[in-house]
Amino acid sequence: MQWSTWLRSQWKAQRHKTGGAKMPTYFAHIDDVTPENMDAGDGWLITEFRLPFSDRQGLGTTMFHARFNPGAVHKKHKHENCEEIYYIVSGNGIAGAGGTTEEIGAGHFHHVPADTEHWLANESDVEPIVVIGWYLGAGSVASTGYVYMGDVTEADFEGPHKGYDVGSLVNHTDVAPADMGKIDGWGGSEFRACLGVAQEIFHAASRAVYRPGESFKPHRYANANAYYMVVAGGGRAGVGDEVAAIRAGSCLHAPAGTIHWFESTGAEPLTMIGLQEGAGSLAAGGFEAAGEIPAAVD
Hints:
single chain, Jelly Rolls, disordered N terminus
């Protein structure tokens, strides 16, 4: 089945489960999401793990936010049923995938294929690691096919850390800004397409920056579900018929075909991490411009 057909079938199923009623809000903020009670016996020795979007909202993909205080670790594990993409918002640590290890830090995007052993640890004495990510095609941790695979050893920590031989690890600082001049409605300062078709991944992960007063006008993706998190700055955004103020920690979800937009109104640039589920580029996502941003209502 093509991804676009699957996405539409998922949305129809969600509508059916609610009797055609309006789905829950497209917005969430990390501060308003209750931390999960994860089992340390299954390797979850992390400080906080929150799920702003999951099957609790009728979705087939889980978005997560995790905090690793100094010394915290998510031990070796794998997800048999889904791919994972995560982004390091802040901090530095050591990560492993497929038996190899690498030093990672703020700005890194990591794609972990399904059924691949991986882990993440914070060796810092002072700075936490903050992570956002997605279990693609799995609406809960249980449905990812989570399998605990054991401790991270001293040898794992010591290295040498030579990079991965499975999946993809890309820092946004190593990716040239895309030429967005031909994208209708784009009015931001910088868009970096960090994961996607270049890595033969059928999802796209990006980092966008909007200086104060800049925006991305209403648009939609016919073939992809979109997820976003604000990591700096503030402004307002619209998804469907909902409009909300956004700030660092705000999370947004726009189902395939749903019009959405962003506007930077704060004193510092609005910086957002984005994911297109089911399409490795804007073009593959079926990008369509959809008019102008509505005027703010006092």
